[in-house]
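Shipment paperwork, digital attachment
Item: protein structure file
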Amino acid sequence: MAHVPHDLGQAGETAAADYLTAQGFEVLARGYRHGRAEVDVVARQGTALLLFVEVKTRSGSQFGTPETFVSERKKELFRLAATHLQEELDWRGDIRFDIIALTQLSSGFRLEHFEDAFY
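Attachment content:
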């Protein structure tokens, strides 16, 4: 697995957060941590939907598509963090786990948004 330089990952998270904001979401947190679990972006659409987003950024697609790099262990940790945040916020609405996959291009990023990527 190719290691993504930290600044590329940060740029990807920023692009994903900007994209979600443009889609009408309120970004609540970036890099939300609970124990060993981390959620790249947490966003909310009113009181109806809480979104937990795994952002995958790649410098190219030669190693496969970004969304294929989410392991079962990562999903498990993701769900743990999501459960904890729901309790912390006393969240009663729906939740969804999405993946935003970004591939670096010379002009910026190609962004693909996978809704309901896993449960």
